[in-house]
Automatic annotation (TrEMBL):
CDD domains: HTH_LacI. The keyword Magnesium does not apply. The keyword rRNA-binding does not apply. This is LacI family DNA-binding transcriptional regulator. One of its GO terms (molecular function) is DNA binding. Gene3D superfamilies: 3.40.50.2300, lambda repressor-like DNA-binding domains. Residues 7-61 form the HTH lacI-type domain. Keywords: DNA-binding, Transcription, Transcription regulation. Pfam families: LacI, Peripla_BP_3. Residues 330-355 are annotated as: Disordered. InterPro entries: HTH_LacI (IPR000843), LacI/GalR-like_sensor (IPR046335), Lambda_DNA-bd_dom_sf (IPR010982), Peripla_BP_I (IPR028082).
Amino acid sequence: MPAPRRATLATVAASAGVSVATVSKVLNGRSDVAPATRSLVQSLLQQHDYVPATPRRAEAGGPATIEVQFDDDLNAYSTEIIHGAIEAGDELGTSVVVSIRKSHQRTGGWARDLVAAGRRALIVVTSELTGAQLGALSRARLPLVVIDPLNLPTTSVTSVGSTNFAGGLTATQHLLSLGHRHIAYIGGPPNSACNQARLHGYRAAMEASGAPEPPGYVRAAHFHYQDGVVNGASVLDLPQPPTAIFAGCDEIALGVMEAARSRGLRIPEDLSVVGFDDTQIARMASPQLTTVRQPLREMGRAALRTALRLAAGERIDSHHVELATELVVRGSTAPAAPTGDRRPGTPTRTDSGTA
């Protein structure tokens, strides 16, 4: 499908009923334009998503600039993505700018402002994109690459991710191999493409083994620590609590571990926990977290390389790239306790002898 035509000065001038010279004066901040005319022209420039034909780019011979944009506060996951993008940028002579912008803030002249600021391409991480936002980027001729998108409004969007389904399958199979049958899944937003794939992997493994999925065993919120605490508490307080929990990310897993500790449960003796990502916090946890490793730095590198190819007008082989995941077994998982032993939800005795 051909890209939409870029609005020109003549387009805006015709809409406003003024000369091209007048529109040019408004763009250049000249004072010899009536206030009412200036306001009208500025409104139409925004309405048409006008982008200058020669926006401010990197100086000739200087580095291109790619913006990596997040929808939420930065965390261990974000740091790994940024690290990979910066490494690739250093190798390829590209500057990397990092920003945080909520999806609802990507309105009006958002895409036009990015181009005017000299951005050659945009990488958006774990965010939701609307058709209107994609249209604005297309009109601005600003290439887009998304990492772990919350949605894919069109198959033509170029994206980088990991083998989330295989990761969810492997994580659940690991717990099943340890003898666990009551396994819960606590994930991120239900509309998140990567969360859906991890959940499908979990369910595929459970169904293949004939293990039950009791009501309340699947929970969805956000990829945040506190959501792990809250949802971990909810499943552990069920009449038949799980003996193992697969968490949709490392932050959720650490929240689950805290919820378990607050109930007197030992990890992994009373509850096994598996995360997803293998960020630094997985190795800082106590015990260290068994998790599915996403190649997050390589995902950042791949996104940066792809964005540069798109900015150069090159064709890419595939609109979606998935990098392989790998299970990393550490100390947060262990064989299920024999039938008849204390089940999760029953407080253990402390060294002082009190419950």
